[in-house]
Amino acid sequence: MKSNYKNILKTIFVVSLSCFLALVLNFYSIQYSGENPLVSSAHGIDVIILITSIVFSVWFFKNFFNHGILHLWQGVFVGFGVLGFSLIFYSLFLYWEVSKDEKKLMIEYLLELKKNLEQNKKTILENMSEENYQKNMHLMLQSTPGDIVFHDIFQKMVASAFLPIFAVLFSSLAMRKTIKV
Questions:
Q1: pTM (2 decimals)?
Q2: In this structure, what are the phi and psi dihedrals at residue 177, rounded to the nearest 5 degrees?
Q3: Would you call 5 exposed, middle or buried from its count of C-beta atoms within 10 A (0-12, 13-18, 19+)?
Q4: Going residue by residue through the chain (181 aa), what tens digit of pLDDT does each one get?
Q5: Residue 105 covered by a domain
Q6: 124 is a domain residue
Q7: Is 125 a member of any domain?
Q8: Residue 44 sits in which domain range?
Q9: How many structural domains does the chain have?
C-alpha cells in the first residue's frame, strides 16, 4: 500500500494544533487560578496532554487515513511530528505571553526563582563555590524572555524525556497492522 504523505501531514497539523490549544488552555487555567504558569507544579498536566495527543494522532492516522494499517515508521513520524510541532507552537505562544504586559509574568518568575535560590542557598553552596552561586544569581537576573521560554520548553522535554518517546514507540507498535501477503 502506498503511503499518503498528505494525510500524515494533515494528521500532524490538526492534532498538533489541538494539542497546542489544550496546552494554552492549561496555561490560562493555571494563571486564572492565581499561580504563575511558569513556576507552577502543573507541568505534569502538560506532559499528559502531550502523551494523549501523540497516542491519539497515531490512532487517528491509522483508522481514518490508512484503512487500519500502520507501519512503524508512520507511527513514529506522526508521533514525533505532533510532539515537535506542538512544542514549537507552544514556545511561540509562551514567548509572546512572557514578553507582553511589561514582562510581568517574567518578573514574577524571576522573583520566585530568586526566592527559591536564596532559600536553598546552603544546599547549593555545598555543591558549588560562593563565587559560582553569585555568578548564577547574576545571570539569572539578566534573563530574557527567550531564555525563560527555552528553559520552560527544555524543562517540559526533560521532565517528559522518555514518556513522549515511549508513547510514540508504544502506540506505533501497539497499533501497527500490516497487510498479510
A1: 0.79
A2: -150, 125
A3: exposed
A4: 455 789 999 999 999 999 999 999 999 999 898 888 887 766 778 888 988 998 899 889 988 888 888 888 888 889 889 988 998 999 999 989 888 866 778 888 888 878 877 887 787 778 877 887 788 788 887 888 888 888 778 877 666 556 667 777 777 777 766 566 5
A5: no
A6: no
A7: no
A8: 5-100+153-174
A9: 1
